[in-house]
Amino acid sequence: MKKFMAALGTVVLGFGVIAGIGTYVAAAKNDPGLTSATPAGTYTAPDGKSYPHYTLHLNTYPNSTFGGHHGADGGAHPDWVSYGLAGEFGEPLTQASTGTNFVVPPHSAVTITIWQYDSGETLNNDFFAKIRGTVGNTATLVERYDTKSHSNATEAKTITQIPHDQVGHTFTIHGIADAKDQVFVNVPLPMANDDEVSAAEEEGGFTQFPSMMTFTIITGDEGEYVWNCEFPCGDGTVARFGNAMSAMSYMSGHWIVRA
Fold first, then answer.
1. Closest Cα to residue 163, out of 190, 197, 192?
2. Are residues 53 and 85 in the same domain?
3. Are strands 38-44 and 35-36 parallel, antiparallel or unpaired?
4. Which domain holds residue 205?
5. pTM, 2 dp
């Protein structure tokens, strides 16, 4: 009887996960707003091949009160962690009407810089602590970037992974679109100093010293993919995989490759 009930529970849980995925996909289709990557000349890859070059600047926050696509008051869930568009020096784009659905051209190089303003903990799976799918499977990390002086407070370094217990969030693209190119990109984002994050939040702001990660992706054929954060950041839910972590426009969005 116990074995039967355990098996039944597993089946019920499985249906629940499937239902959750269905809801997630439906929400993805209804998520409004698109951000196009910015043209930036030509990029020469390590193998000598040249590509049209584009850039994206993003931030990750410990809450949604930065404005932007959530609004000045943080929207429906001001206490949820969130991605948002960033300016040239990691400043919040408070008037942005979009934030998490990105349009990039095919067969191009897209350089993404992400300022990570949140604290962090340990990944459930250290697979996501490694950088995958970028040029050279590497990224450039500045552990402390000074947003007031617009300069690196620590030396920039090229990395292939970060400690699995010092992760703030991840930027992870995955999927197969329309039977075309399979895509998998994973970039872990180091946590900012926990005490500084908490002190800044208490004052209604964000830390002066986020971490900064820069990496380049070479896009393939046209297609539509989903990106998300693989750090368990959905506080207050089972295994912390709900709320912001599974919500479009917070820690999930679209990666759309099209001309």
1. 190
2. yes
3. unpaired
4. 33-257
5. 0.86
